[in-house]
Each structure stands twice: as C-alpha cells, then as structure tokens.
C-alpha cells in the first residue's frame, strides 16, 4: 500500500482521507491552518465541517509540508479553490518530477480562467495533475454511503492508478481522458446551484428547479464544448450528476447562499451567514467572462451575476428570464 498525503483539513479532505485509510493506505493529512491541525490532533475530528467522523490514529496529522509529502505516491489537493495556487507554490521544491497530484477542489480562477489542475500545472510544470470530481458530499462519503466519481487524467495509466487507490465498496471511481470537461462541470454547477437556491428562497417549486437544472446544464455544456470539452462528459457524473446533487441538497453551501439571497440577503450577508467559501460566486464571474470570450449565450449565468454583483432584485431577474424572446429548445435540431 502507498503513502498518500491529503492537503487540507476541511470536510472533503477528511472524507477522502478516510476512504484512503479504509483502503489500507498510509495516509497523512496536512493543513496550513495551525489551529485546524491542533483541533484535528486533539479531537481526531473536524467538529465544524464533518462532525461524527473520527479520524483513526493510523492517519498522521501535521503542519509540516516537507515531511507530509516526502515519499508520497499520490498527493490530494483538497484545500478551498482560492488556496490551490498558493498551496501549489509551497510544493515547488518538495516533490519529484511526475508527482501525481489529484485535485478535488472545484473552481475557475477569475483572472486566468484556469481550472484547478491548470493552476497546479502552472506552478508545478513537471507534475502529473489529475481531477477527481462528481456528486459527492463529504457528509455522505464520511458515512460510507454509496457514491461514484470520475477521475480525469492525461494518461490512462495515471487515471487507473488513482482509480485503484480510491475505489472501494462505497466509493466507485470511473476514469476518463476528458479532464477539462470534468473540471468545468464541477466549477460551473456552483453557479447554477446559486440560482437553484435563489429559486428556493423565492418560494418557487420543483418545476423551477428542474428548469434551472436542465437549462443550466445546457449552458454548461455549450460553454464547455466551445472550450474543447465533450457533451458526454457534461452528461455524466461530474456534469449533470454533480449539478443535480448540488441544486437539491441541504449540504450545498452554494445553494444555501442562494436561498438567503432569494430571501433578500446581499451576497456579503449570505456568505457571512453560510460561514464558508461560496465558490460559485467566483466561478460566476469567470463563467460570464468565458461566455463572452467564446460567444456562448448563458442567460442564467448572466442573471446570477446581475443579482450577485449588480444589485438586480432576484424577482426582476426571473421576470426578465421568463420574458425573453421565444426560441427552440435545441437550436441545432432542424425541422424536416
Ligand atoms: N465538502 C464537500 O462535500 C466537497 C465535495 C467535493 C468537492 N469539494 C471541494 O473540495 C474543496 C475543499 O472543500 P471542503 O468542504 O473540504 O472545505 P473548504 O472549501 O471549506 O476548504 C477549507 C480548507 O481549506 C484549507 N485552507 C484554509 N485556508 C488556507 C490557506 N490559507 N492555505 C491553505 N489551505 C487553506 C483548510 O484546510 C480548510 O479546512 C472545495 O474546493 C470544494 O468545492 C468539497
């Protein structure tokens, strides 16, 4: 069994560390946040993000990055997306060429439009960056509830190595060569999750939720394919799968922030109340800029941006969306 190091001490880092520990690996958890390391060492539990999941003594917990990554066959990047670049920089002189780094953070950098593995490769050009994504709440993986994700890598060999490391009876891992679409799906669904939350906050129902999921998926897929991705991946676990789970789950912080915004909170007030990073807000700006760059019409993404950043009232945004010109569901499907 291998040494595998998980960077980050939040809910997802711990849930994945438990999967890897259950698979018999020699697991180390590292965090840059000293008080988090101390709390994890004292309680063997992240009482805030993943209460009830006890980290066994076989898992090492440290704030010493050099010793944490020394000899690790796989490094798992499980910090919040806003810290992926700074954490990658810290690894610069500590890892060998070809180091496998599995990113599980979801987001798009707003100034570069980089996905998380692209940020990692930018900082660490000789590493082997992999994306692991899909419908997978830490709260449920921590309870060993059957879950499936997909791993995207540049070679099949690496993808299968990561698949073998993570797979078990409650965590099923598929592989794919389409890393870019996997990451775009994971990041862009957070924008639509904000819209789904806003819809719930406004008191709308299942019809509106289904509308948002299907038309939101259409926007993600149109942008993703314009950027070189594959429709089939957007129709898979990391696309529609993750979108469904995020738009309808009590665990989704993006959806919860959206609910508050639908109820009249500003973005700042909602983020403060949720008390966690709302990654969809960063991805919303990036998605809008990407839609302009690739000339893709993304009305839902535009409306979310207007509500989050331009002071538009959620109900006004809904009225504008519903009163757009009539059109076909799929403009590329032609009449006989
Ligand atoms: N929670 C989930 O169910 C889940 C599931 C799939 C993917 N993800 C993704 O995984 C990533 C981590 O999510 P999360 O829920 O575990 O926690 P999170 O997004 O709240 O991340 C917090 C973690 O980031 C790390 N961090 C904070 N400040 C830092 C700093 N200055 N430098 C380096 N690291 C710092 C800390 O370890 C902290 O626990 C996110 O991108 C999220 O979208 C989460």
From TrEMBL:
The keyword Oxidoreductase applies. The keyword Lipid biosynthesis applies. Sn-glycerol 3-phosphate binds at residues 106, 134, 136, 189, 242, 252-254. It is found in: Cytoplasm. Belongs to the NAD-dependent glycerol-3-phosphate dehydrogenase family. NADPH binds at residues 12, 106, 138, 253, 277, 279. Keywords: Cytoplasm, Lipid biosynthesis, Lipid metabolism, NAD, NADP, Nucleotide-binding, Oxidoreductase, Phospholipid biosynthesis, Phospholipid metabolism. This is Glycerol-3-phosphate dehydrogenase [NAD(P)+]. Its main location: cytoplasm. It catalyses: sn-glycerol 3-phosphate + NAD(+) = dihydroxyacetone phosphate + NADH + H(+); sn-glycerol 3-phosphate + NADP(+) = dihydroxyacetone phosphate + NADPH + H(+). It is an enzyme of class 1 (oxidoreductase). It comes from Eubacterium album. Its EC number is 1.1.1.94. PANTHER family: GLYCEROL-3-PHOSPHATE DEHYDROGENASE, GLYCEROL-3-PHOSPHATE DEHYDROGENASE [NAD(+)] 2, CHLOROPLASTIC. Pathway: Membrane lipid metabolism; glycerophospholipid metabolism. It comes from the Bacteria. Signal peptide: none annotated. Residues 3-158 form the Glycerol-3-phosphate dehydrogenase NAD-dependent N-terminal domain. The active site is at residue 189. Residues 178-318 form the Glycerol-3-phosphate dehydrogenase NAD-dependent C-terminal domain.
């Amino acid at each position: 069994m291998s040494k595998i190091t998980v960077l980050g001490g939040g809910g997802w880092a711990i849930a994945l560390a438990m999967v890897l520990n259950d698979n018999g690996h020699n697991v180390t958890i590292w965090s840059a946040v000293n008080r988090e390391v101390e709390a994890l060492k004292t309680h063997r539990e992240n009482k805030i993000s993943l209460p009830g999941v006890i980290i066994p003594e076989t898992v090492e917990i440290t704030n010493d990055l050099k010793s944490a990554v020394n000899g690790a066959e796989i490094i798992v990047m499980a910090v919040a997306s806003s810290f992926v670049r700074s954490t990658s920089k810290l690894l610069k002189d500590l890892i060998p060429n070809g180091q496998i780094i599995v990113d599980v953070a979801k987001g798009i950098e707003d100034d570069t439009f980089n996905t998380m593995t692209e940020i990692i490769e930018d900082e660490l050009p000789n590493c082997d960056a992999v994306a692991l994504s899909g419908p997978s709440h830490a709260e449920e993986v921590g309870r060993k509830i059957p879950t499936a994700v997909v791993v995207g890598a540049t070679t099949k060999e690496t993808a299968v190595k990561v698949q073998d490391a993570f797979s078990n009876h409650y965590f099923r891992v598929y592989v794919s060569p389409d890393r870019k679409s996997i990451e775009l799906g994971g990041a862009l669904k957070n924008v639509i999750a904000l819209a789904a939350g806003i819809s719930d906050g406004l008191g709308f129902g299942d019809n509106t939720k289904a509308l948002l999921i299907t038309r939101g998926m259409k926007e993600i897929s149109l942008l993703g394919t314009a950027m070189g991705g594959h429709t089939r991946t957007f129709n898979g676990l990391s696309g529609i799968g993750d979108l469904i789970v995020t738009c309808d789950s009590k665990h989704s912080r993006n959806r919860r922030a959206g609910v508050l915004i639908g109820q009249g909170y500003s973005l700042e007030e909602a983020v403060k109340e949720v008390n966690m990073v709302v990654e969809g807000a960063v991805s919303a700006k990036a998605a809008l800029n990407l839609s302009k760059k690739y000339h893709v019409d993304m009305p839902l993404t535009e409306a979310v941006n207007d509500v989050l950043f331009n002071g538009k009232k959620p109900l006004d945004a809904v009225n504008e969306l519903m009163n757009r010109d009539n059109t076909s569901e799929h403009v590329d499907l032609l009449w006989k």
